């Protein structure tokens, strides 16, 4: 359905050519200072037309807040907001419409609903993500201002051009010689990257040695009237330990759910991910060490900040795979709805690569997951807090009161 | 929380040393012929002690049905079931308990709840999956008997030993010469593999050329008192088109959520997954062709049966990454709960590799997702079915009545 | 929270002085012919200023559809809609604001959120119901057009003026002489009343012998700068048997939940309700008789169409109690937020009695419950339909196939 | 479905003649001291055979805890528990089974599911409530021990025999002479009644002047092989202000949902309820006065502790109507499943009146609602707590920090 979250919850509406797209955000903490401008920042990072790498449409995407805020403070009641669609007319019928676009949602929407919007894939439109980004921007602002939680995403690969991450060699024989599961430079990048750094380049790749090749790869796709996929990596720093709900709503399970609900996504991995499956436990396990302030930390973080589905206080990092956009203007041999074979060349201009624009969407969905899990854990802690301390159990079964 | 699903819903309980583990399954279709033996099949595939590759514990794991079935027919009411724990005493306290096991859930459970089971990671125990497998077995049986939907999972890699799947070369220059996104043999394997074939070998890898090396790799981990990870690939054949709920509950988003709720999972990809992000849209798109019986099919299936988050009627296939088990008997340098450094060597025998046993768990979670999505789509179709046919819209906006 | 429903789901936003109030309706059957005018009908019945019995404000309440509909057909995607607030400025601060209005939501909203809208009770505003009425209008239209389900509410009492319903005498000794649990004329009214009939009089009471007294009672309250409560009775005719989900989501439990979520409600009863608790089972039970077309019906319907929480195909009727409106312009001795005693006289004009305007709100909430339960039962039936017939059970355990 | 609650959540299973009935309770605060005996107290109050007023079956109803507790402390993980059914054989088929019992759930279950348990109404069995009572007992214990919240229910009427509550006269003319909306003695009873007091008499009516007549009424029903209904009133004392979620999950809406999910319920009212609808606002409104400790309280409490759907810190009291039990051994003229008319006389012994046994069930459902709403409000407060204080808004818009 179109609702995401338990206590911090967003419900979205809208498709390409209707009057507006928007959302209702329920569960926003009351008393938070919030203006449209706070939301607009991420919306503007999301919108097309920001560089020669994206589609030339330049929609303004101005957010209009409808409710839930008075004199710049949230009331705790639902925030309704919307962004008007520039082109609100139903799509004009042309010969192109005879074809379901290959690997797009035209066919599946028609099959699912028995009817589809004239513009095709309905809610699979990238414009649907406006509501998520707006909701995520609110969560993100709260998390950063109040808890110092930083969520930063960036483009980690375009086609075969990738920020170097793994040090795992491709041969079985090398197994015993690996020192690190992932590249130390990559880990360093994760711990320092900022949104400002990411936005310095239109590719939204903060790795100097890679972004030029990425840019060239996207331009090559564009010139070929083709498209290319890529990956977005995201790091969440400053998370408290204890988030994530056993057993079905593990922290990374909710993250994966959130990420794969973004259009064009096909893959997700947390921590060392697929590469880590190749590394023996003795080297993949993250040993504990004493923190300076007294608690425990881990000396490595191949787990990506999540163990047993619960955050352990280390950085959470994950990668999301986006397929090459389905809509290309290069002619494709395919079939019409009735099966007649033919050649389809999509009209108009299209994003040859979505990953730069996907960066704020990934951040927003991450913020929604963190905010919701934080509120659920807050409920548990606040409910358990007044219980008397336990003195009769073995010490390793009970957290010392100071750590609560 | 411990509940999964909207209309077909499982709620589980239990940890390692309590009286029993079990679940309540709500939303089972009434009038389905069902006995304990039907459920036991998958439970027995899940349990340890099946080969020299797994832990030597041999729990019987006999399912005891409590409700919801009378004279071998389901009543439509919740099915309560449980499996007794053989060892129901709280864990005895030893020096080992001073250490949170690295990369296990001991530390995170303690942090989350402020208290933990003496045995450690509480609900992160593999025994928790018994409830899911039992619930999944019921869904699986319905889907297969009534709709011919086949769900088959198998081990696709152990460490660096992998069933060959991708044909994508590692250099940018080769890009224009790739014919297939994935290996044709691999695609053939997906379309033909059966559970019987998978169970022929203790590795649960159906690929003759790979399983011996896998087996050797697991034995090497075992002999080194170490562990090794791997991947499980799963294919769902015979799915109807139209499953998956836009926008947040896309079919693959729910699959990812379900899969990453399984203990030790770190990664998920559907269709061509991360590899597919490297392939231009013109080659990655799946062209439509006329089916023999009149509808549309696609000539390739790099999408993995899901487009726009909705199934298109082609095979759904996905891969799940399992990290190397955290519990190893090889000594590890780490710290105690209070930060004191020391060496931990886990007691007892442990699975050096979980992927063979994870196969029925992956199948079961897949069955839960399919069943729930099928029921939701059934609700939509049955509600829309009596509406009068639409004659006033452009033909490409409306599915011809025969296809409903 | 601000979301209601499982498969047919409405989420609302908005309070008195924000930009707009509105909602997102998810789960609307695709392919339904629907225009703004279809929704406007019920919105217009809900709005104030319709007679001298209600507040003289005359807001236009024009619905603006944002999404989910194209060329007058629903797409199956969420319908976003909104109604602009005429007065969008934050409320000006006056001395009156020093007082929480007695029995209003000013105090509880402030306590709950720590902040409240300047206009007071925030989401407890009657304007919030616009979203519900709009959503209910869509459900209502589907239910009536496609299934012939009629939902009609009417005013059954104002103050002590009540449409005669019960025949139960007030003395224990009479017990054995009662022939009917409820008045036969009342039962006849329930089975024939229409919205047209209800709207003939501004009281929205269809009972000729009562409405004049009701009208006089409301006018008396108005003239006294006071207010008066009342009840709304609603009947749902044409419901299929089998709706309602055991055990927590019984049909009448969901109805009660829906009704008591309407502002100013304090009581709910279904069928013979509280009066029925006084009647022995031998007279209160509804005996079964053969229907003309072959199935079973009941010769009486004191159950109100629900038995064991599941509809039995008879008319569902229930009554909802609305307290006297809290906002009155008559001076009240009370205290300011800081406890200072004083006299509050609310400014402006207020509804002396809300029940006439509550009629379409009750109908809409009823439609939301019926639609959601219908879709859930549709899911169950469509999922169970392809199962083979059961031949091995005692005949009274299985419904004959023809009745399915 | 069979699940109730958002953060504190119970899922139940089981019917009359299956192996056991039980539940899974998720969201229990970790670190709570809890033994089976704590749960057994309410289960024993619920079970039949406690007096000559109830059915003579004497099931032991011993609770068996399966999980979630170790060494008498809750782990925060789900608590699975069950109570074995004494008679686990499917019901033997007799001529009586040809008849759907009038006003029972036999017919509706068969219609809903197409199959039913041989014993009839399946999950509508009173034994299903065991799971709820067990879950409620845990919530109740936490609420009382940690927050001093007391939940006490009692029988307030049997048939026409009622604890005097209202002072509202039956004639319109008296209107201006009423001093109190409800009887002061009744309000006093609500503020002082205890479970011990309630249990002093088998009727579970704490009002000395009424209970003898109630007892006689029940015995008269029993001797007539008939049954009689009644009401249960419940008071919740010590509730914090601020519970209840606008707009659909108002505190009393959730209470009503919970109460009407109990078998045999037909009516619910909070505060002055239906009677209060007859009283003008000027007399029904609850004026604010300064509390001794500085905050606000109300000098009357006709609202029943809920205003705008949110608790205001006053006592919550509500009444639930239970119909006369449908199963009576007195012969009834009715029809068989196939429509054949005939006479049904139910076998065995049956409760002539359920309200005494319903008392702990009402308390338990109330405890479930309070606990869940408390946890949700805890989440909100704990999330908003670290926000900086607001200084720029009019003082009546913001709660002073000390009151948070």
UniProtKB/TrEMBL annotation, chains A, B, C, D:
Record flagged with keyword rRNA-binding: no
Example GO molecular function: chorismate synthase activity
Keyword terms, alphabetized: Amino-acid biosynthesis, Aromatic amino acid biosynthesis, Lyase
Pfam families named in the record: Chorismate_synt
PROSITE patterns linked: CHORISMATE_SYNTHASE_1, CHORISMATE_SYNTHASE_2, CHORISMATE_SYNTHASE_3
Pathway involvement of the protein, from the record: Metabolic intermediate biosynthesis; chorismate biosynthesis; chorismate from D-erythrose 4-phosphate and phosphoenolpyruvate: step 7/7
Cofactor requirements of the protein: FMNH2
Keyword Flavoprotein: no
Family: Belongs to the chorismate synthase family.
Protein name: Chorismate synthase
Organism, scientific name: Tulasnella calospora MUT 4182
